[in-house]
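Quick one: C-alpha cells for this chain, please?
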Amino acid sequence: MTDKDTKKSGKQGEDEMTVVVPPPKNKQNSAQPPNDADGDIAMEDDTKAGEVEAQVDPVAQTVSDIKSNFALLDRAVALFDPRFSLRALRSISSIRKRLTPDILAQVVSETFSASSPNTQVAEHLLLAVDRPNVTLGSSSEMEIDSGSKSPAKNGGKKEPKEVIPEIDIFLGILAQVHLYDTKQFQRGFALSRFLSERIQSLNRRTLDSLSAKVYFYFSLFAEQLAPLPPSPQSPIVSIRPILLAALRTAVLRKDIDTQASVIVLLLRNYLLTSHISQADLLVQHTQFPENAANNQVARFLYYLGRVRAIQLRYTEAHEHLTAATRKAPSSACALGFSQTATKLLLVVELLMGDIPDRAIFRQLTMEATLHPYFLLVRAVRVGNLEDFETTIAQHADTFRRDGTYSLILRLRQNVIKTGIRMMSLSYSRISLRDICIRLHLGSEESAEYIVAKAIRDGVIEATLDRERGFMKSKEVGDVYATSEPAEAFHDRIRACLALHDESVKAMRFPMNQHRLELKNAQEARERERDLAKEIQEGDLDEDDLGGDFEGI
C-alpha cells in the first residue's frame, strides 16, 4: 500500500468514525442508547444535560458562589497569603447584583451554628438584613445525616466546624454592599460600626485587606446620612476618631492595606468639610506606604493634589494630579475617577498660566464631560473676559458639583493676564484706554494696575509709561536660548525614571521558590544521612570522600 492509499484510508476512517460512550457507573442507567442508521449515538443525553443546566436555581447558585470564597479565606489563613483574600474580594463585583436579604440570611444560617462562639456576629448580620428570626445551624443536621454510616466517636454527633473571623467579616462586607446598593444607609452605618469594633479587637494579619474594605464602606455610609457635609454636625465628623484609631493601629501592626485606605478616607473626610489645614497636617505627620495598591495610590495623589491646589501650590498640585491620571485604571469602572482627576488637572494648568492640549478634549470618553471646561479653556486662551464670565454663569452648577467652582473663580486674573500678553505680542505700543476697552475693565486706573502687576510677575516683557498712558512691549527673544527647554526635558526624564523604579518595585517573582529551596536542602540532608550510614557500616571511608565530613 502506497502513502497515498494510506492517506485516503485514513480520511475514510475519520469520516466513518463512531463515538464510543463509556458505560455509566450507575447500574440503573447501564443500558446504552440505541444507535442510528449511520452508527452514531443519539443526542438524548446532551439534551437532558442542557435541561438540567437550565433548571439551576439562581438562589442556590448565588449561595454556592458565596460559599466557594470560604475555601479561599481558609487557604489565606493556612498559607498566610493575602492574595487568596484579594481573590475573594474581587468576586464581590459579580455577586453583588444577585444579593438579596434571603440569600444572605440563608448563607449566615448555614455557616454559623447555634453553639458557635460567633453567634453575636451572626445575629448582627441577620439584624442588618432584616431577618432576625432566622434560626442558626440549619445545615448542621443535614451534615450529620449525610455523614458516613459508621457512628462517630462522640455518640454519632458531628461537631460543627469553627468559623474563622475572616469568613464573618467577609459576610459582613457582603451585607455592607447590599445595604449600600439598596440605600439603607442607617442600617449599614450601624453594621459598619460593629464590624470596625470587631476588627479592632482582633489582631490577625489575614484580616488586613478585609478590614480596609470595611472602613471604606463605613465612610461611604457616614457621608450619606443627614445632615450631609459640609455641615459640622455631619456623621463624617463623628467617625474621625475611629479612623484615626484604625490608622494608629495599622501603623503599629504594619498593615499596609488598612493604612493606605484609612489615610485616603481621612483626606476625603477633611476635604468634604473644608478642613484644609487638618488635611495638610495629616499629610505632614503620616507617611503613605510605598507598597500600597495602585488604586489607593491614585486616590491619595488626587486628594493631595486638591489640597495643594487650594493652598495655591499649583506646581505641586500639577505633579500629583498628573501622576494620579497616569495611575488611574484604564477599565470602564474607573472612568469617573479619570474624568474627575482630569477636570481638576485642567483647572490647575490654567491657574499655572498654561493652556491644556486640545487632544484631551477629543477623547471619546472625555468629550461630553469636559465640554464646559473646553469652553472655559477657549475663553482663557483668547483672553476674552466676557466669554469667561458667560461660561461660568451657564455652567456654574456643573462646576460646583465637580468641586472646581472656587478654583475657577481665581482664573479671572489669569484671563486678564492672558489678554494683556496677547496684546503685548500683537502691538509694540498700545494705550491703556484701548486695553480697558478690549478687556472690558472699569477704568484706566485698574488697567494700569493690572499691567504693572503682569510686568512684575514676568507675564509680559514691557514697560509702562504713566505720563503718556501707554504700554510699550520689548522684543521677544529666542526661547531656545533660555533654560526652559532643558527644564522641560529634565522633567520628562525624571518622570520616566520614576516610572521605571515603580515598575521594578512592582515586579513579582516566581511562586513557591522558597519551597524549591527547602526541597533541595532536604535532598542534601538525605544524601548526607546515606553517606553517614555507609561510613558507619564500613562501605566508605572518610578518605574516599575527598575531605572532611561532618555527620548529622
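The first strand starts at residue 429 and ends at 431.
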